[in-house]
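Students often ask why inverse folding is considered easier than folding. One informal answer: many sequences map to the same fold, so there is more than one right answer. In these notes we will look at a single instance of the problem. The structure comes first.
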């Protein structure tokens, strides 16, 4: 095997591909250098002059960077199949992703993880799968599946599993929960990377968490928090997704610590990718925020490769895999050509590979199982005049708490004349009939109901609205279509939806169709008053995530993450 590379490097045999007359980013010395890049089969064999290739590309005036690596991503958040996700992101220069399919796992268990592994074989995108660690994220909600310590120990040694996904239940790590320790110890025995998830964790608690052998974190909220995590050896993700864009954290990056920073998108939906791109968008944003372009490329390539032990990836050098992106420049970062394992797979923003061959097993369908309800089931009856209200920020995933006086009439809260909405979580896996109820301030929607069957991380149905009949119609529509997104306009009497038929999370439709359908519904949500500083539906999906402060709503009730326990809706 090695002989073909050596002979091509020595110019004794012809190369397969030659990128000539351009420049490239050398991440080993931090320079932009000139030189033709010679490729044999799937590897770079030389950089310099005098090489010949069977296929030669003149890239005069352009710059080659390594293929971009997303350090932490949930494919499900694109609402597309892995095949369609590849077709969306590869033309933007992403050639490898570290994928944690814990959304699918929370609905389908190990079947959801195996689905991604098998689908990944159909596309020119390296999908490195992390075994989902926290299914469910907490014991306080109803999920479609459970993966315990024995399940992790059984599956972590699988050759198709790259490591252990984000360990969100940080109180269980610090508290030395036996089943949690079994998951961590099994991963150490398999010698694989463990991803973290620890917002606002610092000091002794962070020390204890890291003593679980956890290597990464993508949840830093403050600059000081990020600096502390880096100082303790943590690979800290700089997140640039649809809803979480950590631009302030660019200020934490220094010429000394940048090698412990890795770029990720975490969650990015199809309409957002169509509008702004993928990791190319992240590069543009971090450079605009003040990061040096070479440093930006490093945190999107070589740092990720080294963190996740991806040998011979993330840089341009002999024997490295020929995952390469030809960029117009290092400011706009427009990908003109993308090579994966030495083959041209995208050009001028278009994929050059077929996604019609898809892995779509029966078990990913028909996953929404909801008990029959009436409109009265959505009433919120308060036992006091004051209520505990969830508040939201314009950006980020943190929520707050406000105590407010709320009027009631006929056994239900009065929302007219306020900026309050009902927030509802309906259990959709086991037909328990569970309905979590809360009040939320600041979202902006009025005149009906909106909802989605994507609700991190147990993925029950999550709804907002100011009319009980509309909330019922939204629930029934999501049940009818097998999951998706919905808006009920009370004034016009209309029900509009987008079907997400794969686990209630993703669509089997082509990405272009999904992007267009999603954008229409997003535009409708804004027209009905959703704060335009929020991602209309995507912001909603995080309001049930019971591992990020402060208040969250799950199917069993209102949950205070700081107290790590349920709290009543009523307040003194």
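Output (designed amino acids):
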């Amino acid at each position: 095997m090695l002989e073909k590379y050596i002979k091509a490097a020595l110019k004794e045999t012809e190369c397969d591909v030659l990128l000539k007359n351009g420049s490239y980013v050398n991440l080993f010395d931090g320079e932009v250098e000139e030189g033709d890049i010679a490729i044999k089969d799937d590897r770079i064999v030389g950089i310099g002059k005098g090489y010949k290739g069977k296929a030669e590309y003149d890239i005069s005036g352009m710059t080659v960077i390594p293929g971009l690596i997303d350090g932490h991503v949930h494919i499900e958040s694109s609402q597309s199949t892995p095949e369609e996700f590849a077709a969306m992101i590869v033309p933007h220069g992403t050639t490898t992703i570290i994928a944690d399919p814990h959304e699918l796992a929370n609905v389908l268990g190990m079947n959801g993880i195996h689905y991604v592994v098998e689908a990944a074989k159909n596309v020119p995108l390296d999908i490195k799968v992390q075994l989902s660690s926290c299914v469910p994220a907490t014991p306080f909600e109803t999920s479609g599946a459970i993966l315990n310590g024995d399940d992790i120990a059984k599956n972590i040694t699988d050759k198709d599993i790259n490591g252990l996904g984000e360990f969100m239940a940080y109180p269980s790590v610090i508290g030395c929960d036996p089943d949690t320790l079994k998951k961590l110890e099994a991963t150490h025995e398999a010698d694989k990377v463990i991803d973290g998830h620890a917002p606002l964790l610092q000091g002794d608690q962070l020390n204890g968490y890291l003593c679980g052998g956890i290597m990464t974190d993508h949840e830093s909220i403050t600059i000081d928090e990020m600096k502390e995590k880096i100082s303790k050896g943590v690979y800290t993700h700089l997140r640039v997704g649809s809803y979480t864009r950590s631009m302030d954290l660019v200020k934490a990056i220094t010429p000394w610590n940048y090698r412990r920073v890795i770029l990720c998108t975490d969650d990015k939906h199809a309409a957002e990718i169509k509008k702004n791109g993928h990791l190319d968008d992240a590069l543009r944003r971090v450079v605009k925020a003040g990061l040096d372009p070479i440093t930006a490329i490093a945190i999107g390539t070589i740092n990720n490769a080294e963190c996740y032990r991806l040998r011979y990836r993330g840089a341009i050098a002999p024997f490295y895999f020929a995952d390469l992106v030809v960029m117009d420049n290092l400011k706009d970062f427009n990908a003109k050509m993308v090579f994966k394992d030495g083959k041209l797979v995208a050009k001028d923003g278009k994929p050059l590979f077929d996604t019609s061959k898809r892995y779509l097993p029966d078990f990913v369908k028909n996953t929404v199982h909801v008990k029959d309800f009436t409109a009265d089931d959505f009433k919120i009856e308060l036992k006091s005049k004051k209520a505990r209200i969830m508040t939201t920020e314009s950006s980020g995933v943190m929520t707050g708490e406000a105590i407010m006086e709320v009027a009631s009439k006929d056994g239900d809260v009065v929302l007219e004349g306020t900026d309050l909405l009902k927030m509802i979580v309906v259990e959709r896996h086991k037909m328990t009939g569970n309905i979590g109820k809360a009040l939320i301030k600041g979202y902006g929607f009025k005149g009906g109901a909106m909802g989605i069957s994507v609700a991190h991380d147990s993925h029950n149905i999550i709804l907002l609205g100011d009319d009980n009949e509309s909330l019922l119609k939204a629930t029934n529509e999501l049940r009818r279509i097998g999951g998706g997104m919905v808006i009920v306009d009370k004034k016009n009497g209309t029900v509009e939806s987008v079907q997400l038929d794969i686990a209630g999370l993703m669509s089997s439709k082509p990405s272009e169709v999904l992007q267009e359908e999603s954008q229409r519904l997003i535009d409708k949500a804004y027209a009905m008053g959703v704060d335009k500083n929020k991602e209309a539906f995507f912001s909603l999906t995080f309001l049930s995530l019971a591992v990020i402060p402060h208040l969250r709503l799950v199917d069993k009730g209102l949950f205070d993450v700081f107290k790590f326990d349920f709290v009543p809706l009523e307040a003194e």
